[in-house]
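OP here, attaching both records as promised.
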Amino acid sequence: MNMGAGAACARARLLQMIEDLVRSIDIQMRTQPSHRFGLKASQDEHRAIVAACRAKNAQAVALLQAHIEHTQETLRQAL
């Protein structure tokens, strides 16, 4: 989901940053139980973001920002 969103926005630097972040946390996430990182909640957030984008709803920006903040906090607590 994150890679697709970055690619869709056609911003090479943003896409590279997303790829770097995903790679850096991938190992940690794979060694931890999924509930610890709230993967279900994250998937729900992804679905809401995609739905808002498809509907061309400006709320997609707020949903994306909230998702980023939620993910940052989850990772801070887990690591």
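Record two, same layout:
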Amino acid sequence: MTPKITRRQRECYTLLEQFISENQAAPSLDWLGQALGGISKGNVHRLLAVLADRGLIRHERYGRRKIEIVPQEQSNIAA
């Protein structure tokens, strides 16, 4: 089944992929919020929760920078 995500969720997912690929660590919530146009940590949490629910990432709520990308085929992510 192909997970459906919004444009904003796809933007967040893409930023996560790029940051983790370049830095071998997940970004801070502050960095991610700023990269997404200055959104609040609460909104970042909501985006991460949706991506985790859709099986695109693994996110440990109580760990620092505990975000892991779940391998997906590019064509497997629908808008």
